[in-house]
Structures are given as C-alpha cells and as structure tokens.
Amino acid sequence: MAHPLDTHARYRAFYKHLSKEFQSLQFVVTNSSDTSERVRLWGANSNLSISTTEQFTNRFNDTLAIEVGNYPQGMVYNPANDLFYVVNQLSDDVSVFDSQGVIIQTITLAITPFAESYSPITIIANTKQDSPNYGEVYVLSSIRDSISVITLDFTISEEFSVIKRPTGIVYNPIDDALYVIGITEANMFVIDLATKDVAQRSIEGIPSSIGIDSDTGNVFIHIPVLEQVFVYDTNHTRLALIDQITKDITAWAYRPLSKHIYGIVANDASLLVINTITFIDNQIALQGVGASIAYSTSEGLIYIGETTNFQVLRLNSDNEFIDPYPITDFETGIVIHPVSGLVAFSKATQNSVTLGRVIKQGVTIKEDYQEYRQEFQFNPAQVKHLKIISSDRLISTLELEDISISGKSDRRFISIGNYNSPQNFLNVAEVFEMEGVVIDGLHRWYFTLPAQTSITLLIYYTKLDWFNVLEAQLESQ
User: Fold this and answer.
1) Which residues are CB-contacts of 355 (< 8 A; sequence separation ≥ 6)?
2) Which CATH class is domain 23-57+363-475?
C-alpha cells in the first residue's frame, strides 16, 4: 500500500497498468532547421512526407545542366575563387563555371598555335592556403605528357613535362608538391611547387592509380602486376603493403572524419576501403561497377558514380549506404562544393555538366516510426495514452484528422498546454484526451515543431480488428 504522502503513487500505478496491459512504441521527432516546421504523422494511405513544407517532399532539387567543351572528364573545385573547373578531353580546353551554372571562362591549353593534341584527363587544385601557389590549378594531359598550370587570372603560366602517358596526379598539401604516375615506367614524378624541381622516385612496378591521405601526405599506389597497394610517406619511405588487390584501382577518395581512403575496383562492383592509421583493408559491395568517387565535406559522405546502372551511391561514416543521389544518367566525373554541398557531374557523351544539391531534410524521425506506420496501415491500433516529452519546448496543439473511406475530412484540436506536467526538469504532457484515437492508414496527426527542437512521443496502444474499424467507418457515413 502506498504511503499517504507519496503523491506519485497513482502516477506509478497508472504506468504500471499501462505497461502490463498495453503495447507501446516510442520515437523522437527532430526539427533541425532554423524555422518552425509543420509535421504530419501516420496516414500511410496517402504516402505523404512527414513534413508539410513543400521543399521536403523532394529532398533533391536545384538541378540544371550546362554546356561545356567536348568530352568533359575530371573536375575540381577551387576554394581560392569558389569556382569549378572541368577538363574537356577532345577540345583541349578547360571550362570554368560557378555554382549557378554560369560559364566564367574557357581556357585553351595550347600555348602556341598548331600545337599537338593535349587530351586532358584530370585536374587538381592547390588547396593549401599558406602556399604561395594557393589557387593554382593543374591539368594533366595524357598525350602531351604534361601538366599545365592555370593561375587565378585564368592564364597558363607554365607547362611541366612529366612521365610519358601520365594517368594519375595528386596534390600533396603536406609538402606542397604534385605527385604524378604513368603507364610506361615504374617511377613517380614529384614536382616541388616552391622550387619547381622535378624528382623521379622509383616504385615497385607500373602503377594503375594514385590516391592521397591529405592529413598525413601519405600516398597510396596500386601496382596491378603485383596485386598490391604500396603506401609511401613524403620522404618516400614505404609504410605499408596491402596484398591481394587483384584488380586495378581506378580512382581514390579520402574521408578525413573516419581516417579511411576508398578506391574504386575496376570492372567489379566493389569498393576497396583502407584504414589510413592501421592500414587494414576490406571491400564493400556496390550495386554496379564504379567509375568515379568524391568526398562531400559538408555531409561527411562518399559519393560513388556507377556506370553499369548510371546511379550515384552515397556512403556514410559507418560505411553504410543511404539514399542514392537522384540521378539516372551518371557518366563520368563527380566534384562537390565543400560548404554548400552542390554536386557537379560531368557527362562526356553529352558535352555537359549537371549541377544539383541535396537539401537536408529539416524534420527527421528516429527509431522505428516508418515500420509502425506501415504496420498500422493494415493492422490498426487504438491509443490508450500519449506522453510527449521535451528537454526544451513542447508543441502547443495537436491536430487530429480523420479521412473517411469516402474522402471526407474531419478535424479536431487538442491543446497540449492543458496537459503540461513538468517532470525532472523535462517538459512533459500527459495527453489523456488521446484515449480511443485510432491510428491507421487514414487518420493523421499534425503539429508545429519549433526550430531546433526534439520531442519524444510515447504511445500506449492496443491492436484493433480491421473489419470492426471498417464497419464503424461505414456506419458513420
């Protein structure tokens, strides 16, 4: 028997009864935007989003296409002028464009008239702010066997001769140097950008590709004939050897948050993942053959473009795939703005670049809400009690909408303030008025969630017989 001074005895007894006699579910609704958002729950028959704000019904928007030169290939973002650059392989030039899709400049690579073909294939930028060459852009040309240096005024200041038939280049911010490999010899060219000195460093075989850990300056080089990846530091000391890489690695991307480097496995639906601290490797299955890869700084995601199914996958920090980017005609390259998240895709056969942006969804729901929503669509539930919890602000009103099978809408409003019951420094509402409310594919709940606010909904319920619910709805028509 409860002590007569125990004012919480009835409360504990009530929840003991609920826990014993009813099923329960709990989920968190979060508004991460800077404005209040209108939230919609349940009503799975309508297949509507959780937010009534139009921009959230489609999380991907602002897509446009721009014309560039002939057969665009690799791209880069230049932080020094906030512009994108793409190399056009068959027109031997570089297109420069901004985030609005406006072409700012077209730069011809040939310094002299009637020069032989350049065939530019990839491009990188000097991203080290304290480098005297910050903002320079470097174009690697596979037929010219050269690197063209583009300054911030869009002129070509010089041209370096490098290894014959070069195939890969990285900029190393640790030693402010360019590292270049090719398919004709077992050497790596290293160009010191401060002195312009070019050094040749011997490697163990003909390489297929080169990637870089931009935090340490370590480079990762795949040698196909040896089926190995070699890791070197800036002094060309070999740090690690990764075995049994049986297929070529065609492109690399480094994720600084997780300290992993990712390599696309040629002609295989898989992705090589190497921990850049332990050098332990594993592979992740893709849905198709990958061709291009990029890191999104603003999202912390790895983007992988696949050429067999023309889609772009997105990999989070747990190495799990989330919703793919909504493009169905991926072809060639990817580059991503580090702040806005704007994504540019080069399309070689269309002589174009497509721009798009992923809009972060302001309203999200954790836990198993979507599974319960689908379940209640076909197996309705009846609410016994609703508890709303927040460490900040509660919602003010809960609006209940009943859509009948004939399409008629009936709404009623519950003032949450009438049920406010602060507990242990939390704002809590014990909404007894919700007893008897049905959750199915027709009924919906609406409320306005304040900016930067999360609430927890704890619902006690019992399952209903669908045929009894349907009969009751028909009788009410």
Assistant:
1) 62, 63, 64, 65, 66, 99, 101, 342, 343, 344
2) mainly beta
Domain assignments of the chain as residue spans, ordered by start: 23-57+363-475, 60-358
Give DSSP secondary structure letters for 86-108.
EEETTTTEEEEE-TTS-EEEEEE
* pTM metric for this prediction: 0.67
Please name the residues in contact with 294: beta carbons below 8 A apart, sequence gap of 6 or more. 253, 302, 303, 334, 335, 336
Task: Give SS3 for 463.
Answer: strand
Residue type, 64: L
Looking at domain 60-358, which of 2.130.10.10, 3.30.70.1660, 1.10.8.60, 3.40.50.150 is its CATH number? 2.130.10.10
Residue 95, token pair as written in the block: 């297109």
pLDDT averaged over 10-residue windows placed end to end, the chain, 477 residues: 56 89 93 83 81 44 81 97 97 96 96 84 97 97 96 96 95 98 96 95 96 97 96 97 94 94 93 97 94 92 93 90 84 92 93 81 77 90 95 90 75 89 80 94 92 92 72 55
Q: How far apart are the C-alpha atoms of 376 and 392, rounded to whole Å?
A: 30
Alpha helices in 209-306 (DSSP H): none
User: Which amino acid, one-letter code, is at 350?
Assistant: Q
Note whether 141 and 109 are within 8 A (CB). yes
454 in Cβ contact with 402 (< 8 Å): no
Burial per residue of 375-404, b for 16 or more beta-carbon CB atoms within 10 angstroms, e otherwise: bbbeebbbbbbbbbbbeeebbeebbbbbbe
Cβ–Cβ < 8 Å for 26, 367: yes
Q: 77: closest CA among 391, 334, 311, 439?
A: 334
